[in-house]
Amino acid sequence: MSCPRDLQEALRDDLSEDELEELGSSFDIVGDIAIIKLPDSLLDEKQEIGEALMQVHGNLNTVLRQAGPVKGELRTRDLEVIAGDPKTETTHREYGCLFKVDLARVYFSPRLSRERFRIAQKVRPGEVVTNLFAGVGCYSILIAKHSDAEKVYSIDKNGVAVEYMHHNVRINKTGGTVVPVEGDAREVVEEHLRGEADRVLMPLPDFARDFLDVAVEALKPEGGIVHFYDYGEEPDLFEPSLRFVREAAPEKEIELRDREVVRSYAPHLYHVVLDLEIGDS
Ligand SMILES: C[S@@+](CC[C@H](N)C(=O)[O-])C[C@H]1O[C@@H](n2cnc3c(N)ncnc32)[C@H](O)[C@@H]1O
After folding, report:
1. Is the Cβ atom of 156 under 6 angstroms away from ligand 1?
2. Separation of alpha carbons 101 and 163, rounded Å
């Protein structure tokens, strides 16, 4: 039998037209694991769907069903193995870097790959970067690999993510540049990293607004760049975020250098980023 072209074709004999439409065609691949969300109406078919996905993508060893939203401060999610090896750990390759992750215990999204590379390309030689929400180190390691940054301080509160970050720093040979730090971003900056950075990353759109003062505090006294992640709603994707920043730091001079839609999040709602130059007014 020839290999089916896509998930829809692979399931044509198992699911009705309506079920195929409900299933859609969206899933993520991280290393050798696929993650798929299923509507409740298709839960009885989850095993067939998982096996079909493995048939279509020959390199997969496991298919996970995402059983709930990304949630909580640590941004993790409930996952269920529906086909293949019963595991949640894998190694993902992106722009020449390797990221080992346990998808059930840390945050990771392959959908941010383009944004990570965009940031890495902005970093100038000799810069000190502070990443307030570094996860398993993907932004930080990509920066270390694709720029001549001097240091990338990489904070995360999730001890498991920091363990993986140490491993990833080692396998990508970025130990001279990336410095993993376990802890709360506010406490770590206040105690150790005040006034150190030319550039601050805030890749946590759900809570970035609560940490804007921390990002400003992390910058060198002469100021620098803050990548501020937020949610933007149509039709005004960026202006409310910019207004928030200007109102939250009225004593600062804030220039918008760039702005991007990182990805679509829900109907009319987008994950956005503002690249801000922040200095004293
Ligand atoms: C959306 S994830 C982004 C991780 C990583 N930058 C990436 O793109 O894969 C946000 C990360 O922030 C961490 N986090 C949440 N609150 C934090 C805090 N107060 N201080 C430090 N890290 C925090 C979570 O553990 C999580 O790993």
Report:
1. yes
2. 10
